[in-house]
Amino acid sequence: MPRIIAIANQKGGVGKTTTCVNLAASLAAMRKRVLLVDLDPQGNATMGSGIDKYGIERSIYDVLVHRAPLRQVAVATVESGFDVLPANSDLTAAEVELLEVEGRERRLRAALIEGGADYDYMLIDCPPSLNMLTLNGLVAADGVIISMQCEYFALEGLSALMDTIAGVADSVNPQLQVDGILRTMYDPRNSLTNEVSAQLHSHFGEKVYRTVIPRNIRLAEAPSYGLPALHYDKYSRGSKAYMALAGEIIRREEKRDESAPSGGARLHSNGETQ
Length: 274
Hints:
The chain is an alpha/beta fold. It has helices spanning 16-29, 44-48, 60-64, 70-73, 91-98, 107-114, 132-140, 152-171, 191-204, 217-221, 229-232, 237-259; strands at 3-8, 34-38, 75-76, 83-85, 121-125, 143-149, 177-186, 208-214.
């Protein structure tokens, strides 16, 4: 079975989609079979992967409402080496339709399990809100990567997100855990950045990834060309950071497989593992 990772934050503009696209490309460069699942109706991860969201015949909407299986909808990216379950504005209708369906929060998980044999990693780009789509992402996932900026209000949002993840784990998906907290748009020259970073380390310890994603113009430019930074400018600081993150994730996964029993530890909102 693949490792299914949701990249989430209820706050927008914190680098979720950038992380999803560039982490997918970096894992693929390390010879991992990767599926990027775009669960945001804006379809930014789809476009950033080089797929025209306006030109696709089928999208993740068709998977969620059982019109087509995953294998018929997934699109291979030519340059980047990973597959995409694309999204566009049709996905907004899925949220409404799912409200009347029994077991609606498990629709995505069922679809990913059915097509899981083809992949090592599935990365879910969650929308920046807590809705039925985000809930589907959290129920489908084995772990969550929380992408966040080191700023004052980010800490407040992080607490709420941790409560949400713990609630999903307690009620619907007991295997769900926080894989790690990723600091994005990182600028060590900023004193607030360093202060918030220190608080994260104090509260969450090893859950904070060692890798940080710097503010980088190449990361910002790459989506307009429909490319991950690795294929836009592989020597940029941004692309190197995401390669380092991919390596850190793989090492953590190997360590977890070696040492953890099948249950695994789960991080709660107070930072303690159970």
